[in-house]
Amino acid sequence: MPWEYRLGVSARFGPIDFDDFHTVELPERLAAGNGKLAAGHLARCRPIAFRLEDGRAYTYAPAPDGIELSPGADEAQTVVEMTYEDWCDFVWELKTCFALLYADRIKIPTGGFGQLSRWEPALRAAFDGQPVYDYANPVPVAEDLSTTFTLDDSDDDIRRFLDAAGFVHLKGVFNDDEIEALRAAVETAVAEARPDDHRSWWTTVDGAEVCNRVNYLNLQSDAVAALSDDPRLERIGALGGELRDAADRLDGHNVVIKVPGAETGLADLPWHRDCGMGGHPVKCPLLNVGIQLDAATPASGQLHMIAGSHLGTSMLPSDEDVAGLPTIAIETEPGDVTAHWGHTLHAAPPPGDRSAAGRRAIYVTYVNPLTFEMVGAGQGYNDVLFTRSSGRVRHAKEFTS
Fold this sequence. Notes:
Number of domains: 2
Distance between the termini: 30 Å
CATH architecture of the largest domain: Sandwich
Shape: globular
CATH topology of the largest domain: Jelly Rolls
Helix content: 25-40%
Low-confidence stretches: 1-10
Order of helices and strands: HEEEEHHEHHEHEEHHEEHEEHEEEEHH
CATH class of the largest domain: Mainly Beta
Number of helices: 12
Largest sheet: 8 strands, antiparallel
């Protein structure tokens, strides 16, 4: 099913009356407290309008106590045009501004995409009362972020750290023989991957194409498929509550590969959330569990986390924002496992040593059961990344610069 149609059907995410929403529903939500929640996150936001294909439009303008709404788009400094169906999905957060950008589903005849991106966190606060993670006043995290655990520790202690920091590092979960078997599965999958298969991601190094991710690795390897029934991973997944293993949808069990010298695409992931393309109310809480196949060091590439950032939505942070936040680069050994909430801001900067071997990690994802109602087998919100890429995943800046 093409991505431009809604993934699945649910009574929770039905049509929204465009005019009634702007003249009745949203003003009531703003007056009830969502306006004040949004007000503190409108710095550098300018009036923005959403206009449908039939010409109906409403302008959102920053106000001292939140957002001021007015019909039309004449006073807007940015105008975003989209279909009615896409607007409904944007309000429900089934599609984010980045998903609409990748799918080429929006036109911005006035202003630029940057304003839409800047507005989105405040809109989430206005639409459904989501808290916003404030870069100027980050949530205090009392835990020592370098703390590690083993499966000998109690689930309560592990869960307490995960819920506070948004991630957890478990040492020595898999033994050397198991890691070797998983490495062999990755090497076979990479050898068989092709840039146009829509299951793998690619980058370039000195002009040559190199694979940096393979999705649905479990369909190619019995060893990877068996991870769905591994009691150690089931125990870790259960830290998130009543979540389900998403082996047959979203990206399946996938491997992320750090490629030294990567020049293009999304090999070096910037700060992001795993629900960044949409589906936050469907997938989350989402727990991503990473089996580390190689040592994670500054030379080979590491997973970076902003502790506590899972407690709210936000714009993607700039380098200036990150400088004042509680961040950590996680150092792991082969066989270690990391787990992080999908809503935790994280990044995978490039390996520091171009001559070093890059880090590889297999991810098993546990999601809200609603995912299985909304997303069919073999489908996922990240499928949109292929829409304008001829099979090659591109960086968002290639569409906005």
